[in-house]
Amino acid sequence: MQVYLKATLIAAALGLSTTSLAYPSPLSPRQSSTLPNITVIDYEAGFCDSGGVAVSYGTFGSGYCLPVLVDSYKFPQLPNNNCSFTLYDGTHDCNTTLPHVTQVGITQIPAGNGTKCVVGGVETGGEGVDGPTRSGRYSCDV
Asked: Which of 138, 118, 126 is nearest to 26 (CA)?
């Protein structure tokens, strides 16, 4: 109850709705049209595998770069493809040519039929002075 209330208050403070939040548009083109789009669930007030609350969801495909705006994301596994999510700090669009950008980590999302929790590490919408300060690229083996 306490975690749900905290997430609800955070969502209200951010002007978010747990049912109708507009998902950010992906920042780069699809990697392959043969791979299906996935629906990713966004979590705040904790992580998707330990008490976080789902606040929104979005659909995109392999190769996309996303501005990271939440604590964590729940990615579905693809039955026949290994995937990964590479997290960058210092950029909202996965631009790794900027001098201050660092790769924070890579989360492997193995082929399967379950889900994988991916830490975004961002609280309160991830907004810095110039917008989101983290981004991540979702990619899969073709």
From this structure: 138
